[in-house]
Amino acid sequence: MRIIAFVTDTASVTRILAHIGEPTKAPVLSPARDPPAWDEAFDQTPVFDPLAAAPEPTFEFDQTVTW
Q: Which of 7, 26, 61, 63 is the most interior residue, by most CB within 10 Å?
């Protein structure tokens, strides 16, 4: 499908929409809805992550590469 013209005249658009059986008025906007209601307060305590709490190694590790 190619767009070959734009109809911008309000009266023409209304007549075309009425002819093809489409509504000529824009739908009524609904009001915005409220955010979801939580039954309980949101728990913001951090979750224990065993990988994040891993202790530092007790041995010295040399990361230099000698070729």
A: 7
The Cα–Cα gap between 59 and 61 comes to 6
Q: Is 8 within 8 Å of 16 (Cβ atoms)?
A: no
At residue 18, φ and ψ (nearest 5 deg) are: -65, -35
| Helices vs. strands in the chain: H and E counts, helices first | 1, 0
SS3 12: helix
> Is a pLDDT exceeding 90 seen at residue 37?
no
CB 24 within 8 A of CB 14: yes
For CA atoms 49, 55, 56, 59, the dihedral sign is: negative
More confident residue, 49 or 26: 26
